[in-house]
Design goal:
The protein has helices at 17-27, 31-38, 84-88, 120-128, 134-155, 170-186, 215-223, 240-246, 302-314, 345-355, 402-412, 416-426; strands at residues 6-10, 46-55, 58-67, 71-72, 105-108, 111-114, 190-193, 196-200, 202-205, 208-211, 228-234, 257-266, 276-284, 289-297, 319-326, 332-340, 362-367, 372-380, 383-392, 395-400. By secondary structure, the protein is an alpha+beta fold.
């Protein structure tokens, strides 16, 4: 099986675009490659600064996009338009990704910043014309699509017709292309994430006062199975661009791993805890060996058995199933089987003894073969469908993903099997 080069993003202080770039640079991506890639873009009016800062005593890389149009405000007059996002993480959060109809000029903290409005098609044209490496181009587009799809849902319009004033801005294009360039240089082909810590309260945006997490972040989390963890920190810790980068993982978390390298990317605000994003290149331990726990039960009610199954799965069992059997004295019974990791055995035994009438549990090691797999998104006439792509010995198998088919079936008023078949036909899956 092909070995993945896995990036683990530990998002205990949230995640944003510039924090991710900084962490990847600290992880080993080079400034030379980054500047060379950005130089291909038909963008001007900005510069980037890369340096080192201290966050709660930790040395971290700092990545900053500075626009030529920024100018100091007269602090004596106060801000023209307050935006709590600015103080919560970094400049990416000015003009948080929300659709708007015309250019406006805002003041954010001590700067004035003019937001340039672009549609997804405008951004795609910039990317396509830059002569980027294929991997950088593909990943940049993917991150932008994640954000634009979420914004389309939030604002009730097709993604390609949403006008962005943050994602379309120069600094956000730079952040996203920089992330793609760094990941391509590091050879990363798999991303996993921790729970994503987020603040609370409200932020002031062009559309008014919005709750934290902002709608686009929530939508991305819902679309891509990200786990948000609410903290007591006031203000915003997760930007839509950051959430879209985390969404590359499709919510997958690492289980057991060895750390090869560590990179620290600094946020722009000082929290009580270190405001950093930790990025790690990790080697995940093979998941081929598991344990099977079994017990034959003939004196337990269906309600008890069902509750036990739920409890085992909630505790992290890989799989739980029942097999009808006959026991001594011709009693109909069930064999309860639990598949789990070695370090879960004691916990699973406890659930079995507590929630059923069993007085003994057998156990033995089992081996399994796991196919290389990933989730891809593809456009269909019925909406965006997620497809599970599995590979074995050079052969590729594609399966429409259940939750995606279910959602589209409900949206279109179709039966599940009808939608499943239509997606297979659209994707030419046999």
């Amino acid at each position: 099986m092909q070995k993945h080069k896995t990036l683990y993003l530990e998002c205990c202080s949230g995640i944003s675009g510039d924090m991710t770039v900084a962490a990847l640079l600290d992880l080993g991506a080079t400034e030379e490659n980054l500047r060379r890639t950005l130089g291909r873009l038909a963008l001007g009016g900005y510069e980037i600064r890369i340096g080192r800062v201290q966050k709660s005593g930790l040395d971290a890389c700092d990545f900053h996009v500075i626009l030529e149009e920024e100018a100091p405000c007269d602090k004596g007059e106060g801000p023209v338009h307050s935006h709590e996002c600015e103080s919560s993480i970094d400049r990416e959060q000015r003009g948080m990704v929300h659709a708007c109809g015309e250019n406006q000029r805002h003041a954010h903290g001590e700067y004035i910043h003019t937001h340039e409005h672009r549609t997804w098609k405008d951004i795609e044209k910039i990317l396509d014309g830059a002569g980027l490496k294929p991997g950088v181009l593909e990943l940049s587009k993917k991150i932008f699509r994640i954000v634009s799809a979420a914004e389309g849902k939030v604002h009730g319009r097709p993604a390609e017709k949403v006008h962005f004033h943050e994602v379309g801005a120069v600094d956000s294009i730079v952040d996203i292309v920089s992330v793609a360039a760094c990941m391509e240089e590091l050879g990363i082909d798999r991303v996993v994430v921790s729970d994503i810590w987020e603040g609370q309260g409200h932020v002031h945006c062009q559309h008014g006062i919005l709750p934290v997490p902002v709608p686009a972040v929530l939508q991305i989390a819902a679309d891509h199975r990200l786990t948000l963890k609410q903290t007591g920190q006031r203000g915003e810790m997760v930007t839509p661009t950051g959430a879209a980068i985390a969404a590359l993982s499709e919510g997958e978390k690492p289980e057991k791993f060895r750390i090869e390298r560590i990179g620290l990317g600094a946020g722009k605000k000082d929290f009580p805890r270190a405001n950093i994003l930790r990025a790690m290149l990790i080697e995940e331990e093979p998941q081929g060996e598991l344990w099977m726990l079994e017990s034959n039960i003939d004196d337990c009610t269906g309600e008890m058995m069902g509750y036990c199954m739920e409890s085992l799965l909630e505790a992290g069992a890989r799989d739980v199933f029942f097999t009808p059997i006959y026991m001594k004295k011709n009693r109909p019974a069930y064999r309860l089987s639990v598949l789990c990791d070695e370090d879960q055995i004691r916990e699973m035994d406890g659930i079995l003894f507590r929630e059923t009438t069993t007085i003994g549990v057998r156990r033995y090691r089992v081996q399994r073969e796991v196919l290389e797999r990933q989730i891809e998104e593809t456009a269909t006439p019925y909406g965006t469908a997620k497809v599970k792509v599995c590979r074995f010995d050079g052969e590729e198998m594609r399966y429409p993903e259940y939750e995606s088919v279910k959602a589209l079936a409900r949206e279109q008023g179709m039966a599940y099997r009808e939608m499943y078949q239509k997606i297979k036909e659209q994707l030419q899956i046999r």
